[in-house]
Amino acid sequence: MDQIEVSALRRASMSGIDPDALLRRRALAEALTAAGFPIKSATLATMVSRGGGPAFRRFGSAPLYRWGDALAWAEGRLSPPVRSTAELDTRRAA
Q1: Model's pTM, two decimal places?
Q2: What's the average model confidence in pLDDT over 14-22?
């Protein structure tokens, strides 16, 4: 288990949501926002067709997202810690 997954599991336990819980898109957006990762359900919907979003399954026509997977996806989008924006520019150039 990598650091992102461990961190995501820690946040999931702190949020009180079972990591295996399946959430509809709106509930997922609200839960991610409450966990500190602001995202709109419309953004998640766009990512379904364009890619880049968290893994999901379908139950009929309804997309369902596993909370633990979505939280790991959000953690994976975080940049490494930096002290200034200049550090970000340096890391991008490397």
Answers
A1: 0.77
A2: 85
